[in-house]
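Why run this: before we spend reagent on co-expression, it is cheaper to look at a predicted model of the complex and decide which construct boundaries make sense. The entries below are exactly what would go into the expression plan.
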Amino acid sequence: MSIEAHSTDTHDLAIRARGLTKRFGQLVAVNHVDLSVPRAHVYGFLGPNGSGKTTTIRMLCGLLTPTEGDVEVLGLRIPAQAEELRRRIGYMTQKFSLFEDLTVRENLEFLAAVQDIPRAEAAKRIDELVEQYHFADRQKQLAGTMSGGQKQRLALAGAVIQKPELLFLDEPTSAVDPESRRDFWEKLFDLADAGTTILVSTHYMDEAERCHRIAILDRGVLVADGTPDELTQSLAGRTLEVMAKQPRRAQQALLGVPGVLSVAQIGNALRVLNDANGDAAERVRKALADVGLEAEVSASHPNLEDVFVSSTRGRDDEAVGATTPGKAA
Amino acid sequence: MNLRRLFAIVMKELRQMRRDRITLAMIVGIPVMQLVLFGYAINLNLRGLETGIADQSNTAASRALVMDMVATGVIDPTVSATTPQELMEDIRRGRISIGIVIPPDFERRRFEGREAVQVLVDGSDTVVQSAAVQLAQVPLNTRPTTNLRTSATGQVGAGQVSVVSFYNPERRSAINIVPGLIGVILTMTMVLFTGVAIVRERERGNMELLIATPLSSSELMIGKVLPYAAIGLIQTTVILVLGVWLFDVPIRGSLLDVYLAAVLLILANLTLGLLISTKAQSQFQAMQMTFFVFLPSILLSGFMFPFAGMPRVVQWLAEVLPLTHFLRLIRGIMLRGAGLTELWPDVLALLGFIVVMMTLAISRFRKRLD
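The model came back. Tokens follow.
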């Protein structure tokens, strides 16, 4: 069975999904998503809450049955071969899902047993993880009494105990302080370096920027897919920085201008994202002059946030301005 | 089935239980409290007791007497026998609650004013005993023309029917209540413990982790059940020790049979709890469903009210409840000294219940979130 699965031409891809769709009644949570995740990559899933990240991850590891679409993970057909897949993946849930009333070591012992790691080997592996993940002095502490960062580290240790080929991490750093986040990402790159493929979902732009590749999900639809560089390069010339004496008024003035996708205030400056038509800088200068506002307009480097805004705004006119800070104020 | 994984689940459950002080306290607290509370039982009159009649006299007078007794509504003649020994055997097997023996020399005894009729009673049910006393009040002469030697008080025939209560001659209700209480307590705690155990993991998010591992449904289910089965046996022991110590409850059958019967009930309730847990979305729902089963168990199983007194349809319903069968087993073993093999229909019923519930629970449990 597995021989046949491995003989396909997807051996360089850890995950391949085509037309992946999940409906819950009327709601389309994931809508015809195509994904290709190369092996030994850190692949980011970027999207706001409710964009279908968790649902997609659950379908990829066989916990949810797709309504439509073909999924192949590590050469296995999902959901048909999900049971086989479970031996080869690690999955870290969004919510802390280890046992709060077990100690650090008990949790790891339980997971080692459940993953069929022989007893002697398990003890060695647990010692190793305890060392690597800095739990040497906390082995007997109940998991429930630890901080968010410690819990998340323990959850990662638990997810990699059987040395999985593929690791799914669902918003692993959502309840964690910045320093713990940085440590956590160091661990992820260590794992990727050792050959583990990592699919990580996040709503932090800085985390997305660290990934080898990212996919942006918006309301169940895959709106962008590529390396962070590719994605930001595609916006070259469309992002402007506006220095105005009255930034709030300038923001109001710019929001109505055709071709302006979003205006966000960053400190004293305004960051303006434009669509691809015409000379954006000229248009913005004119609009500000028309209302008698003095401003300095210069080009700026696009970042992932711009990518995110441009790929989600372009899809749905109703959304334009709706989440713009200026309008909401 | 992988033993290492199964053992991992069992260990995890035991470790979690050890840290859950309230549950630990409940394991011993519930049996002790209930035993003391229910130690004093309620006696009720009843009707329609299954009765065996051995009319060895078979005369017009004896037949008239039987008809008078039936007319009281207390008894329902379902078995006819020829000897008292047959009736005793039927009582022991639980087929009848009352046996009426009319000896061949009934007519002569009656005229001599000696005890003319014997009523054999299954004393393991106190309510049945009091019903038998009512029977003894049935006057032996119903025909005024008969020339009787009457007692001085003029109470014709009083004292001529003697009631012999087997198994509980002093008519102490604790003797009847305590064995039943094992069943009631096991029903409540076992269903609740397992029902909540799985739902709690779903609520806390542990389930998503568990189903993403190679753990199989049956390993998870059986691993969850085993530690609680051990707890059930501890509770059984607590009740037995207290019952013997505080209430002088006899254990006339073999202790092994008592524990085997308890294991059957424990497994029946645990598997039912598992089934509930596959359906319930929250611990509160699991609790509600438990009580949906628990109340009928207490009321219909024969623990509170005699089974014989209930309408036929309700009796069928009660036959589905594990407690009904367990009560027959435990009262038979502890009070009448019967063996499990003699009570095989109820053993079979419990085994069937366990197999059906476990199969349903495992097949309903999906390693999926949808």
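Chain A has 13 helices and 14 strands. Residues 1-10, 317-329 of chain A have pLDDT under 50 and may be disordered. Bring this page to Monday's planning discussion.
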